[in-house]
Write a structure and sequence with these properties.
The chain is an alpha/beta fold and about 220 residues long. The protein has seven helices and seven strands.
C-alpha cells in the first residue's frame, strides 16, 4: 500500500458526506449510533466464519481481503462473502481444484423502498469487483443481500460497467484531492445529518453565552 491507497469502505462515507469522510480520515474521529451498531452486528455475523463452507458445487468464503494496486484505482478492502462456483469457463483459484465463477455478495441490513439497490451500496461493491477481478483474473458477478427482506439483488455491472468504472475513478480522484489538502471541508448544502453518527463531532453543541458566568470566572469564583 502507498500513502494514496484508499480503503473501499471509506468510499461510502465520502459519497454520503465529504465532511464526514474528512472527519474520519483526517481527524480520526469515530462514533457509533443505532444504525452503525446494527450494520456492525450483521457484518460480524457474516465475518465470523460460519458462512464459509464447501460442497461439490461451490466453495463459499467470508472475510477475504482483496486489492487492486493499479494507479487508476489503488484500493483495498474486505469482502463480506465470495462464492466460488464451479464452471468450465471460470478461472483457476489458488487453493481450489478446477475452475470457478466468482460471485461477490455484500450484506446490508435494510433494502431501499423505491429502488432495487442504493447507488452508494453499488459503487462499494463495484470497487470490490475491481479488486476481485484483478486478484483472480476473472469477470466476477456481484450481489447485495438485504437482510430485512432476505433476498439478494444482482448488480448490473455486466451491462453498466463503464458507468460505474467512470464513477469510481472520479470519486477516488476527489477523495485523494481532499486528503491532500488535509483539511475539513464545510458542510455541503442540503446535507442530511439526522442519521450520521458523527454529528456531535461535526457540529459540537456550544454552551449558551452567560454574562454572569464570565464575570464570576474573572473574579475567580466557583460557578455552580
Amino acid at each position: 500500500m502507498t500513502d494514496s491507497t484508499i480503503n473501499i469502505r471509506s468510499i461510502q462515507h465520502y459519497m454520503y458526506c465529504p465532511r464526514r469522510f474528512a472527519l474520519l480520515e483526517v481527524n480520526s474521529d469515530w462514533a457509533e449510533n443505532a444504525f452503525v451498531v446494527k450494520a456492525n452486528l450483521l457484518h460480524e455475523n457474516v465475518h465470523s466464519g460460519t458462512h464459509s463452507f464447501s460442497d461439490s458445487r461451490k466453495a463459499v468464503r467470508s472475510d477475504i481481503a482483496v486489492y487492486n494496486d493499479m494507479p487508476e484505482y489503488d484500493i483495498f478492502g474486505i469482502t463480506d462473502c465470495v462464492e466460488f462456483v464451479k464452471s468450465n469457463s471460470g478461472s483457476e483459484i489458488c487453493g481450489l481444484d478446477g475452475k470457478y465463477k466468482v460471485c461477490i455478495v455484500e450484506y446490508k441490513p435494510k433494502a431501499p423502498k423505491d429502488t432495487p439497490f442504493r447507488e452508494t451500496d453499488a459503487i462499494q461493491v463495484f470497487a470490490q469487483k475491481i479488486c476481485a477481478d484483478y486478484v483472480w483474473h476473472c469477470g466476477s458477478e456481484a450481489y447485495i443481500y438485504y437482510d430485512d427482506i432476505r433476498r439478494r439483488v444482482k448488480l448490473p455491472f455486466d451491462t453498466e460497467y463503464e458507468k460505474y468504472d467512470k464513477m469510481l475513478k472520479g470519486l477516488l480522484a476527489e477523495m485523494r484531492l481532499l486528503l491532500s489538502k488535509n483539511d475539513i471541508p464545510p458542510r455541503r448544502k442540503g446535507q442530511k445529518c439526522s442519521g450520521c453518527s458523527l454529528s456531535d463531532y461535526c457540529f459540537p453543541k456550544e454552551k449558551k453565552y452567560s454574562v454572569r458566568e464570565i464575570i464570576l470566572s474573572q473574579k475567580g469564583a466557583e460557578i455552580p
